[in-house]
Write a structure and sequence with these properties.
The chain is an alpha+beta fold and about 525 residues long. It has 21 helices and twelve strands. The strands form four sheets. It has a five-stranded mixed sheet with strand order 1-2-8-5-3, with helices on both faces. It has a three-stranded antiparallel sheet with strand order 4-12-9. A two-stranded antiparallel sheet has the order 6-7. The structure holds protoporphyrin IX containing FE (HEM).
Length: about 525
């Protein structure tokens, strides 16, 4: 069955004897490769892993067949396994041990005792092969060096420079939704949010505003979707795992075409911006020639050093010789991909949850009316950082939406040394560690009635804060590898939601128990259908 699947992936048209011969050939090859593959952990490590609870493993395949489900059902499968084997359980993926963390208590134990013994998982090799060795995929000292270099550009600077752009794109999004508000038509908000988020990210990244229907916008989104879909499919279809088999399939071609597009786009955009900056500098030098006042001259030099967008900062680092062109291209893609997919998923989920809880939506309306006055006037509505800080209740809603639906539902890690938990269990060095935020955030000990959308559970006097469960809620993962765009992301979410709620009244069409998602490292919401009407 397993081998038949391999054959069908590679030679979909083969029949009869050809198929049988191919099955024998491929089976010999797969067996040979698996036997030759060096185990990633020691014999002692293997024994320690087997002491952890988990389903019985087969020789060679391990538990690979237990993970064979449709993509849409993967998250539920992890929940079922965690229910049966506990919040910390192991599976063998061929001869690779995977330890899963799916309860808040286990996550708390792990990170509070050993967060410095955890690195990125080997699974990020796929990211490295596709968009290169950027901040996201680096490990060890190379990582720390790059993060230090990028920190000034991501931090408050990004938020400060971002506010006018977020206002501009939020107002455009209100306009886009107007046709649905007028017609009363149902709308799947995710594609709309995705297009808006990528245009905002590019505006912040390299100051280019794309039209909503620009082919680059839809081509980029499709390219990323295809490539991540086909790469993650390799988790559910273990026979596609070995590179030499995957590379023979049509899926590999689709995935690599997607990555090619992403890389070409980065090159094209970076080259374009470099030329623009050169022209800007030449123009500013010519103007300076005419200015004799040395004080003004100093002002101009300072202004030229002060970057306007994230890409300018990267190019400045390249000019200083601190990074190479390939690093600029790679960080360009990391910013784009890291920024738009997560934010659009988070916004879709948050708006869906507000739409399905009119009483919570009403409280947000009241808070916004208090801050901005009643009504929404597109010509004057403008949000400042002070406004964002005063949106306290909306902040709780954002936190609760990220709890229920963390856009990155799982963080792939690896242990660098043995980790001794306080209950005697040991997770040995070299083990792939998957921290399932989606399930950690559903631990009833810290989040009673976990499926319910209750923003108040994040108010300062709630049980959650009393329990001091720092690692029970980690939508942005955990330092030192937490999300570098976190402040920007939360500010964006609060601002866009404020625009959406001020302008429209939202109602959910898809019932909560029919909500679907696909797992592609991020969790794409596939059917968040809403209705909207202008708010009176
Ligand atoms: C609601 C929105 C967001 C969420 C929930 C989110 C979540 C995360 C998480 C969980 C990680 C760690 C991933 C892992 O452990 O494998 C991460 C890393 C990262 N995020 Fe975000 N993110 C969001 C928005 C953004 C934005 C807007 C940007 C860029 C502007 C960004 C850039 C990055 C980068 C570059 C990393 C890698 C950081 C490192 O390894 O040091 N993220 N994000």
């Amino acid at each position: 069955m397993f081998l038949r699947n391999i054959i069908m992936e590679i030679f979909p048209m083969s029949t009869g004897w050809t198929k049988t011969i191919l099955v024998i050939l491929v089976s010999t090859l797969v067996l040979w490769i698996n036997l030759r593959r060096r185990k990633k952990i020691s014999r002692r490590g293997e024994i320690l892993v087997d002491r952890l609870s988990g389903p019985k493993a087969l020789p060679i395949l391990g538990n690979a067949l237990n993970l064979r489900v449709e993509n849409e059902d993967f998250m539920d499968l992890i929940g079922i396994l965690a229910h049966k084997w506990g919040g910390l359980f192991r599976v063998w993926y061929f001869n690779d041990p995977w330890v899963n963390i799916a309860s808040a208590d286990d996550c708390q134990k792990l990170y509070s005792s050993a967060k410095n013994l955890i690195e990125k998982s080997d699974e990020i090799e796929i990211t490295k092969q596709s968009v290169g060795d950027g901040l996201y995929a680096r490990v060890g000292s190379l990582y720390h060096e790059r993060r230090k270099l990028l920190n000034p550009a991501y931090g408050l600077n990004l938020v400060r420079k971002g506010i006018p752009k977020i206002n501009k794109h939020s107002a455009m999004l209100v306009k886009t939704f107007r046709q649905f508000a007028k017609s009363g038509e149902n709308v799947n908000i995710y594609p709309v949010m995705t297009k808006s988020a990528i245009r905002l990210v590019w505006d912040s990244l390299f100051e280019k505003v794309y039209e909503e229907d620009a082919s680059d916008v839809s081509d980029y989104i499709t390219a990323m979707f295809m490539s991540s879909y086909h790469h993650t499919t390799r988790i559910f279809k273990p026979w596609l795992r070995p590179n030499f088999i995957f590379n023979l399939t049509s899926k590999s071609k689709l995935a690599s075409d997607g990555i090619q597009f992403v890389n070409d786009f980065a090159k094209r955009s970076v080259d374009e911006r470099r030329i623009y900056l050169q022209q800007k500098r030449a123009f500013s030098n010519r103007s300076n020639d005419k200015v004799l006042n040395p004080l003004e001259d100093e002002e101009n030099t300072k202004a030229a050093n002060d970057w306007d967008c994230y890409l300018d900062y990267l190019l400045e680092q390249q000019d200083k010789g601190l990074i190479k062109e390939k690093d600029v291209l790679c960080e360009f893609s990391v910013f784009t991909i890291g920024g738009y997919e997560t934010t659009s998923i988070a916004l879709t989920r948050a708006l869906y949850l507000l739409a399905s809880h009119p009483e919570v939506q009403q409280k947000v309306v009241e808070e916004l009316d208090e801050i901005f006055g009643k009504g929404y006037d597109a010509s004057t509505f403008d949000i400042t950082m002070t406004h964002v800080k005063s949106m306290k209740y909306l902040d709780l809603c954002v936190k609760e939406a990220l709890r229920l639906f963390p856009p990155i539902p799982m963080s792939p890690k690896k242990t660098t040394e043995d980790i001794q938990l306080d209950d005697g269990r040991v997770i040995p060095a070299g083990v792939q560690l998957f921290v399932w935020m989606y399930w950690v955030h559903r631990d009833p000990k810290y989040f009673p009635d976990p499926e319910a959308f209750i923003p108040e559970r994040f108010s300062q006097d709630s049980d959650f804060y009393r329990e001091r469960a720092t690692y029970a809620y980690i939508p942005f993962s955990v330092l030192p590898r937490s999300c570098i765009g976190q402040n920007y992301a939360v500010t964006t979410m609060k601002m866009i939601l404020a625009y959406m709620i001020k302008a429209y009244e939202w109602t959910a069409v898809t019932p909560r128990d029919e909500l679907k998602m696909t797992f592609q490292y991020v969790s794409h919401p596939t059917n968040a259908i809403l209705k909207l009407k202008p708010r009176i």
